[in-house]
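User: Hi! I'm working on a homework problem where we have to compare a predicted structure to a textbook description. Could you give me the structure for the chain below?
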Amino acid sequence: MATETRAPATSLRRTRAERTRRLFIHLGLVAFGLIMLYPLLWMLSSSFKPTEEIFRAPGLIPDTFTPGNYTEGWTALQFPFHHYLLNSAIVVAGAIIGNLIGCSMAAYAFARLEFRGKRLFFAVMLATIMLPIHVVIVPQYILFSELGWINTFLPLIVPKLLATDGFFIFLMVQFIRGLPRDLDEAARIDGCGHVRIFCQLILPLSMPALATTAIFTFIWTWNDFFSQLIFLTSPDMYTVPVALRTFVDSTSQTSWGPLFAMSVVALGPVFGFFLAGQRYLVKGIATTGIK
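Assistant: Happy to help. Predicted structure tokens:
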């Protein structure tokens, strides 16, 4: 009888210990999340502060609430800020379309076709992932300058159509390799060639990988500063990252309030696009074997 009484008590203590452990884990995760979110919250708070108060009172609650930073920042530059948002949208749309077309075709070739030098080309493609952009930016600039593409969106869009992002090729290759080859054989029996198999079979089944590619392309291209600064030289062609840089003046006082306000505006599309495709992103990464 004593043994039966002792067993539930032991089980109860274990349950309480497990709940306490989970509580501390969740509290730790919440604290870590707040630490990670603090810079974003500070920027959001600073967008409603006067410029002279931002660094004098670093708290999150503004002493003087200044929503005029948004209207001032929207018209502070040579063009209204929606002009730069539109430029970024054009570049991002072209980059997404280019990566979806170019990388998916290259991935299908590596995953389904047999040709001489396939393993070598695949290894070279993987090696390009580790190649810093600073190594190739000078040859690219010389090439695009000879083509007359400097100060246009073409250097930022056309390379995407040529499958220059090895990461997305690898991601799609891993996904396509996970699709049963019996589907291809059944399609060939019905008289389908590689074009119809790719367009009508592989692409619809690869929607999670395609969505993952689109989301990462959007975020990376929208936030890309270096390439856009190199290839876009006139203010009317500036994208959002380059336009935000013009708020910082090394010779006079920087308008920090409007800068933070427009930075918050610039983050809006990134958060919206990420939240809209989050479930596809998780599914796409989980099914490609990337840890």
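For your comparison, note the following. Residues 188 and 228 are 44 Å apart (CA to CA). The radius of gyration is 26 Å. Good luck with the assignment!
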